[in-house]
Amino acid sequence: MKFDVIIGNPPYQSGKKQIWKKFINTGLKLKPHYFSLIVPGGLMTAASNNDLRNSLLKANLKNIVFIENVTESHGVNLKNGKNHSISKNNRRTHSC
């Protein structure tokens, strides 16, 4: 299956299981031209995400945006108030 664009705000948990990581891994495996997800702030800070961060480093990302306080900037009440947006653009001649 081939996708040109993947954009999403995946569900963060199902019960006690963090499922947002599966969305990142699946998205990277599909190798879309454009890939953008909103994910929890723990992506960059939790030791349990080391393997995922290494995968992101190898994925030719355009940027990862850290939003320090989502509650203030977007009016969304999150437990830790932090979030990340991951963007990938494989086509060097276009901007995402």
Task: Report a brief summary of the structure.
This protein is of the alpha+beta class and 96 residues long. It has helices at residues 20-30, 50-57, 70-74; strands at 5-8, 13-14, 17-18, 34-40, 61-67, 83-89. The protein contains three helices and six strands.
Radius of gyration, Cα only, in angstroms?
13 Å
- Which shape, going by the Cα principal axes? globular
Judged by helices, strands and strand pairing, the structural class is alpha+beta
Helix content estimate = 25-40%
Task: Describe the main β-sheet briefly.
Answer: 4 strands, mixed
N/C terminus separation:
22 Å
The averaged pLDDT comes out at: 78
- Tell me the series of helices and strands, N- to C-terminal: EEEHEHEHE
Total E-strand runs: 6
Unreliable segments of 5+ consecutive residues: 91-96
Count every helix, treating DSSP H or I runs of 4 or more residues as helices.
3
**Strand order across the largest sheet:** 1-4-6-5
Task: Tell me the count of domains.
Answer: 1
Q: Which range does the strand content fall in?
A: 25-35%
